[in-house]
Amino acid sequence: MPRILYLATADARGHLMRSQLLTHALRAAGAQVQVLTTSDEGALFLAGFGIEAPVLSRHYAVQFDARQNMLRRETDRNVAHYVFRPGRMLRDIVRLHGRLREADLVVNDSFHPALLFMGALPPWRHKVVHVYGASLRRALEGNFSGRLPGWTARAFGRIVAWQIGRSRARIAHDFAQEAPAHDGHGTYWLATPVAVASGENVAPVAPRAAVYLNPHFKDTALADGLEHGLAAAGLGAHCVGEGYAGRAGWQPQDAHWIDTAARSAFIVSAPGMAALSVAQVYRKPILLLQTDQPEQASNAERAAQGREAALERLQPWSQLLLRLATQPAAAGADAAYPAARLD
Predict the structure, then answer these.
(1) In the chain, where does the domain assigned CATH 3.40.50.2000 lie?
(2) Which phi and psi (to 5°) does residue 292 adopt?
(3) Which of 228, 232, 285, 295 lies at a C-alpha separation of 20 to 30 Å from 339?
(4) What 3-state DSSP class applies to 64?
């Protein structure tokens, strides 16, 4: 029975949604899975899906404004404090070290600094798998481009790439990924997984929009404009957003939002991988609320190139993670780890 530790950062709910989908699939296949997250709100979100997730640390988080625009200086400051202040990342590494000894595989979803560090070093790297959106990795490596001198920004990008590349394996997901692929050296490309809507027939369309906004959306003017625009168009709306908890017509969470989305006329959301994947799989138009996040800007540019996609996206993920958890890593810190098959 493979033992998997899954650390899902709570910066965006897409990481948490993916972790609960995979946790249920892996447990159904016989694996033991322990999920950790990075905020009390994230733990509460996962509890809505029947997943108990202790909070590893409340110190690390990407910073956003009330319209989910990334605050770069505040984020840099927060990450620096987390990495360099005693009792933060070092404490988490000590705590994770004990959990890693009991796990066959450790999933880092996505780019938590403690597991980036641990995944690059011999005592732990043979167990760490990094999971990330392909556009998010590009954004991370280019984080200081145009904000610091060129050589400094490039050095940061190379250090991050080196840390990621040293791990046991890497799973890059994308809403537009057509088929599973791998390079034979531990990097795999999979389609972003989505939840399966309940019921046999999801074809009927209701004259409404399925709205989902991440908890960083809190601006009342934005919600006002969205509500008035939909009402003027004669459309109903099913609105979900933790940032608008207590607002009339909104609910903070909905574990069955996918059922509404699959039967709605269209979707309204930010251009995250998960939302774009849902729109593609269920063939729904999507109104994108563009935010100042490099990876989401990249996603939005490619969304118009969408194509039909298969609904079943979880099986390749669970098969790959189970195989990585059960097959032994090659001996030696510099040895190439064996590639898990995807077929």
Answers:
(1) 3-193+313-326
(2) -85, 75
(3) 295
(4) strand
* CATH class in words for 206-303: alpha beta
pLDDT, one tens digit for every residue, the chain (343 residues)? 899 999 999 988 999 999 999 999 999 999 999 999 999 999 999 999 999 999 998 999 999 999 999 999 999 999 999 999 989 999 999 999 999 999 999 999 999 999 999 999 999 999 999 999 999 999 999 999 999 999 999 999 999 999 999 999 999 999 989 889 999 899 999 999 999 888 766 666 789 999 999 999 999 999 999 999 999 999 999 999 999 999 999 999 999 999 999 999 999 999 999 999 999 999 899 999 988 988 998 898 888 776 666 677 888 999 999 999 998 775 333 334 445 555 4
Q: Is 260 helix (H, G, I), strand (E, B) or coil?
A: helix
Q: Where in the chain is the domain with CATH 3.40.50.1700?
A: 206-303
Local structure of 189: helix, strand or coil: strand
Alpha carbon distance 130, 113 (integer Å) = 11
- The CA distance from 245 to 251, in Å, is 6
Q: Left, alpha or beta for 310 (phi > 0: left; psi -120 to 50: alpha)? A: beta
CA distance 236 to 173: 33
What gap in Å lies between CA 94 and CA 72, rounded to an integer?
A: 28
Other Cβ atoms closer than 10 A to 166: 18
61 vs 82: CA distance, rounded Å: 9
The CATH code for residues 3-193+313-326 is: 3.40.50.2000
Start-end of H helices in the chain: 13-28, 40-47, 72-84, 89-101, 113-118, 134-141, 150-165, 220-232, 257-262, 273-281, 294-303, 314-326
